[in-house]
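Consortium newsletter contribution from the modelling node. Members have asked for a concrete example of what our holo predictions look like. Here is one, prepared for the D-serine complex that several groups have been discussing at recent meetings.
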Amino acid sequence: MTSIQQTDPEIAAIIVREEARQKGEVNLIASENIVSDAVLAAQGSVLTNKYAEGYPGRRYYGGCEVVDEAEEHARSRACELFGADHANVQAHSGTQANIAAYSALISPGDPVLAMDLAHGGHLSHGAKVSLTGKIYNFHHYPVSQQDEMIDLDLVRKMAHEVSPALIVAGASAYPRIIDFAGFRSIADEVGARLMVDMAHIAGLVAAGVHPSPVAHADVVTTTTHKTLRGPRSGLILCRKKWRKKIDSAVFPGGQGGPLMHQVAARAVCFREAMTDSFRDYARQVVENSVQLGEILSAGGLRLVSGGTDNHMILADLRSMDLTGDIAEAALGRAGIVVNMNMIPYDPAPPRRPSGMRIGTPTVTSRGMGTAEITRIGEMILEVLRNPQDQNRIEGIRAQVREMCEQFPTRI
Ligand code: DSN
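And here is the predicted structure:
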């Protein structure tokens, strides 16, 4: 920090304050995590100085021989970790990865079937406000109204009606295991390609605590910073036959030079994800999530789909006469960070939705287990029962701070 403190004390102070915020709060944002010092070191390295348009051995700049090795490591480790034929490690983000995958797999105007954003899908799965929704002809499947889970019979029925060129599986707010083999058989029935966006669950897949989509999908996209606990970036895995199209769709199709410091940080993350300690972490993420769900449910909070199989819980706050914005703000005052979220068939608007999303990756990475999760569940319930009671919330804030002191954010 010394040199940034001298050069730019304002930004230096912001970094210090943000680190203190992260240390002093219980972060339950399902899509966030904390990275290791090794990942941070790669991201903050001189590899950021290098332009390397192209791919290893076929660059448009001189001086790429060293960074080529970093990209080779990242690609081969990604393939080994997930059992894929080919990996592209240049997409800057998950949305960039998805855009590249669409561009490789289908043509503008083609029909696509993907999960409804309001039911747990993602903006880049063809939402009207996203470029993806403007370029392709997306149709969206809901979850079942009965059990709030993906209904493959309904997906099949829609697939026969829509005749999609591509089916997209994967979600950003879905707490249950996704049956990728089931999606594959539907895609085969209607002659569609299958793409899986596993951004949320990639770390669980890497650790074997969620079924892998890799053997079933033509292309799998993901971010690397959620449960996978790596740098902020995208990753595309594909079958051999898609290799050239995917690589061309990323560069030069949608991006210029790759961010080589981020490529190297991906390589570090993939190596870390091959370890026993990562597998232990991933198992604990799910255990913590299931336990937290049980505590909240026993306390009167209705969980969408009745529970969770993964790292996240989607809660229906109407069961406590609350809306997502009020719950998010009250919990935030207590130092418990969540995000308001639409729930399936939500009658309320996105800025005042009926639900909130809660995830356990960050607290698990910090080393929190059964005892802390029990306490966190109790504190959440106490805040939700008393969202206007500032004294009580301040008391909880002090307890959160005390608990957080025992669990580092640098790993
Ligand atoms: N914004 C991410 C999430 O929170 O799930 C997805 O891109």
